Amino acid sequence: MPTTANVTRFAPSPNGPLHLGHAFSAVMAHDLARANGGRFLLRIEDIDGPRSRPELADEFRRDLAWLGLEWEEVPAQSTRLGSYRNAAARLEAMGLLYPCTCTRKDIEQAGATPGPEGLVYPGTCKGRPVDPAQPAALRLDIVRALALTGPLTWEDALTGVQQADPLALGDVVLVRKDLPASYHLAATLDDAADGVTLVTRGADLFAATHIHRLLQALLDLPVPRWHHHPLLVDETGRKLAKRRGSGGSGFGLAERRLRGEDGPALAASLRQHNFPAGISLAST
Ligand code: GLU
Ligand code: ZN
User: Which ligand is nearest to the CA of 240?
Assistant: First the structure.
């Protein structure tokens, strides 16, 4: 094990209240930093335009404080758009981006196959002239990018060394139609800028790391290690998710805090994998 201090982060998006899965993730990231005198960072990932609710960021800080965690907050994503634009311009100058005007429906109708993160883009717009007046996203040409970098590996603390397989996700969007970055570009640049050395997050983002590793190689960014932890699931085996309303209905942090539950006691039981009724750790 490396002896250098870990810099970890918790990077919530203010698009819905946090749930127990977030508490588990934040406590784990916090402890992995504190275990060797490192730093635990909070980064608010607030570029998701209309879905972002700025007031939730304050609620997140109250939730973390209630759990008994201490953190250093780094600038929110909305303040870093310039760095996303610069990186995109660099990738564009390398000939690695192409405009895509497809809607979700276009992609479905083009017979896209499912991948680890939804449908794999079938490359419809690659090499196709695009009307500059039409709103377009920019996609990363994975085949060309890999031809530049050669094979890459990355290391997960729980599952070991992985062969990077960005082809499994296909030509992902790096610059959205409405934003100067996608999640992949923003999070990768921010982790580098923040000096994160151990990216701690849920196993649902495991596959995304193949893309992040490729971006690091293309943009000469330092390569951290990752720790993808198992997700919390409910009685029906479904993972807790904001989009399914897990921030409410008993699993939410703010609702538990406001009800007067003991936050540090909850953090302690999460550390012991002693989960509240109805919750367990996914086996994969
Ligand atoms: N902002 C993302 C989320 O709320 C997490 C991104 C990450 O940890 O890489 O799901
Ligand atoms: Zn397209």
Answer: 1
Could you tell me where in the chain the CATH 3.40.50.620 domains are found?
7-79+230-281
pTM, entire model:
0.95
- Residue of 201, 215, 232 to test ligand 1 pocket, by largest number of atoms within 8 Å of CB: 201
Average pLDDT over residues 195-205: 97
One DSSP character per residue, 24-57 reads HHHHHHHHHHHTTT-EEEE------GGG--THHH
Q: How far is CA 250 from CA 38, 152, 232, 253, in A?
A: 33, 42, 14, 8
pLDDT digits 0-9 by tens, 123-175: 999 989 988 899 999 999 999 999 999 999 999 999 999 999 999 999 999 99
Can you name the CATH fold of 7-79+230-281? Rossmann fold (3.40.50)
Indicate if ligand 1 lies below 6 Å from the C-beta of 11: yes
* Residue 119 neighbours by CB under 8 Å, 6+ apart: 107, 108, 112, 113
The CATH number of domain 81-175 is 3.90.800.10? yes
Tokens of 1: 């094990």
Q: What atom in ligand 1 is closest to the CA of residue 202?
A: 8
In one-letter notation, the amino acid at residue 21 is G
Rounded CA-CA distance 128/263 in Å is: 54
For the chain, the distance separating the N- and C-terminal CA atoms, rounded to the nearest angstrom, is: 24
Ligand 2 mean position to 114 CA, how many Å?
A: 16
Residue among 42, 78, 183 to mutate when testing ligand 1 (max atoms within 8 A of CB): 183
Is ligand 1 within 6 A of the CB of residue 99?
A: no
Whether 205 lines ligand 1, by a CB cut-off of 6 Å, is yes
**What residue spans in the chain does CATH classification 3.90.800.10 cover?**
81-175
Neighbouring-strand partners of residue 173? 139
> Are 76 and 41 a contacting pair, CB within 8 Å?
no
